[in-house]
């Protein structure tokens, strides 16, 4: 019976930490090594052991399982790829490795003669296998590859943001990597994401890429499909069998705590979504970006205190409820927000408490998807507030895109709004112009609804009914 990957790692790298997510990662790498997955994408935050698992330990394990296998490692530079190669060779030279896989040996010194061993290429003695390393855009002429491992083909954000480098990377992948592969070849792409049109993004547009959420998928994946494991630094997706963390939980809290990750997100929300969450968006493709005007104090004169609420459309959506003040010039100042995926029984109470602590006089609730019942429940909890509801029938995409400039021009956020409402802030500053590229529309939808009610829509067009 083959040595398991986790057992292998414990023997050759006994100092490696095994957190729950590392065990999941290594279990999936073992499935890849055994051929249960032919095409695998793994994305995770920096400094979480990504390359150690995929590009140092895995190649040695592959050659141990099959000394006739030809393995190639590629990275953004030849020197980095060579560094990975040397690490793999050191593992194979170790006594611990020899005890597990005695058939897999490399040339030592000049013996045996006739075999290649350099920093970029090493051949397995008495077998057909080899380990080859190459930098992005490097040549692989004459080399057939059984398993390709592509680790960080972009050095940094500057490279990934360059259309020329992205195009060159794609050209190299299609004209070099793909031409060295055969029917049974396997591919592992392991990245920190930098840009939505990087190699992973481009592949996702052209080929089936399935998010990995259940171990049963290993037996169901189409032959030409990709399996994609994305570990978010801060859990925002729904818990799954593969990643059962609750929302907001850090991936490796012993190394990067929630507090540290939140601080990194505050510094650069767009970059954080790329590097740490695996959800890149090109800055040039953002609808709002980080361009919202802010305020330190409310204006002296306020003509209206109001609230706009949109209940969750589906199970993964957010309820978004925003209280705000309007000055004589029609400028809207956000004062409080409830942005939650909790059950309606809880969000009814949260919104009622927000209305009570604010100066809100009227609250408007979209009646779509249970909003009418929500409005009536809130009205019972805060009888002093006039709660009204209406049905929103206009196209959401058209509304959000057409009113984007008005939202930026007329809405003001508290100076500390990204700390007060982190998810609300994050979903707005990373919201994309390409409507279908967004996972959540809730925050943008409510801001659009506010400017429609206060600025752009004639009052007689909105058919409003009292909640009671």
Describe the 3D structure:
- With 468 residues, the chain is α/β, with parallel strands linked by helices.
- It is 36% helix and 18% strand.
- The chain contains 17 helices and 16 strands.
- The chain has helices at residues 5-12, 20-33, 50-65, 78-93, 95-100, 157-160, 163-177, 199-206, 258-267, 269-275, 344-357, 371-381, 396-402, 404-410, 417-420, 422-429, 442-456, and strands at residues 39-43, 70-75, 121-123, 130-135, 147-151, 186-191, 209-211, 226-230, 293-295, 304-310, 319-326, 332-340, 362-366, 386-390, 411-414, 465-466.
- The chain has an eight-stranded mixed beta sheet, sandwiched between helices. Strands 9-15-12-11-10-13-14-16 form an eight-stranded mixed beta sheet, with helices on both faces.
- The longest helix has 16 residues, at 50-65.
- The chain is elongated.
- Residues 459-463 have low confidence and may be disordered.
Task: Provide a short characterization of the protein structure.
Helices cover 36% and strands 18% of the residues. By secondary structure, the chain is of the alpha/beta class.
């Amino acid at each position: 019976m083959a040595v398991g990957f986790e057992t292998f790692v414990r023997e050759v790298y006994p100092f490696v930490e095994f957190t729950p997510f590392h065990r999941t990662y290594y279990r999936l790498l073992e499935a890849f090594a055994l051929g249960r997955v032919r095409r695998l994408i793994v994305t995770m935050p920096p400094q979480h052991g990504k390359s150690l698992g995929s590009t140092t330990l895995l190649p040695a394990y592959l050659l141990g399982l099959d000394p006739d296998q030809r393995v190639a490692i590629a990275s953004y530079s030849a020197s980095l790829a060579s560094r990975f190669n040397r690490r793999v060779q050191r593992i194979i030279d170790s006594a611990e490795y020899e005890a597990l896989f005695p058939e897999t040996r490399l040339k030592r010194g000049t013996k045996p003669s006739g075999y290649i061993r350099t920093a970029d290429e090493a051949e397995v003695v008495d077998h057909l296998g080899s380990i080859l390393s190459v930098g992005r855009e490097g040549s692989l002429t004459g080399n057939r590859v059984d398993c390709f491992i592509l680790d960080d083909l972009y050095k940094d954000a500057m490279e990934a943001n360059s259309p020329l480098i992205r195009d060159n990377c794609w050209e190299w992948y299609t004209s070099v990597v793909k031409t060295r592969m055969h029917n049974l070849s396997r591919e592992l792409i392991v990245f920190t994401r930098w840009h939505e049109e990087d190699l992973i993004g481009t592949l996702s547009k052209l080929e089936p890429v399935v998010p990995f959420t259940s171990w049963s998928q290993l037996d169901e994946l189409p032959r030409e499909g990709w399996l994609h494991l994305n570990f978010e630094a801060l859990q925002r997706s729904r818990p799954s069998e593969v990643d059962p963390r609750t929302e907001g939980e850090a991936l490796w809290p012993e190394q990067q705590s929630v507090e540290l990750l939140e601080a990194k997100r505050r510094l650069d929300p767009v970059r954080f979504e790329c590097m740490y969450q695996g959800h890149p968006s090109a800055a040039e493709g953002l609808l709002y970006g980080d361009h919202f005007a802010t305020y330190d104090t409310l204006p002296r004169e306020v003509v209206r205190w109001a609230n706009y609420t949109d209940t969750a459309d589906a199970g993964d959506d957010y309820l978004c409820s925003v209280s705000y003040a309007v000055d004589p010039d029609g400028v809207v100042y956000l004062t409080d927000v409830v942005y939650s995926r909790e059950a309606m029984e809880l969000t009814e109470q949260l919104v009622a408490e927000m209305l009570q602590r604010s100066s809100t006089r009227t609250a408007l609730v979209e009646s779509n998807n249970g909003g009418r019942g929500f409005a009536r429940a809130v009205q019972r909890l805060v009888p002093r507030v006039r709660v009204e509801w209406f049905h929103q029938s206009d196209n959401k995409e058209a509304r959000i895109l057409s009113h984007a400039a008005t939202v930026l021009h007329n809405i003001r956020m508290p100076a500390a709004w990204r700390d007060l409402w982190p998810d609300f802030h994050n979903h707005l500053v990373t919201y994309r112009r390409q409507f279908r590229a967004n996972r959540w529309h809730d925050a943008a939808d409510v801001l659009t609804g506010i400017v429609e009610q206060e600025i752009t829509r004639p009052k007689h067009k909105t058919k409003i009914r009292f909640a009671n």
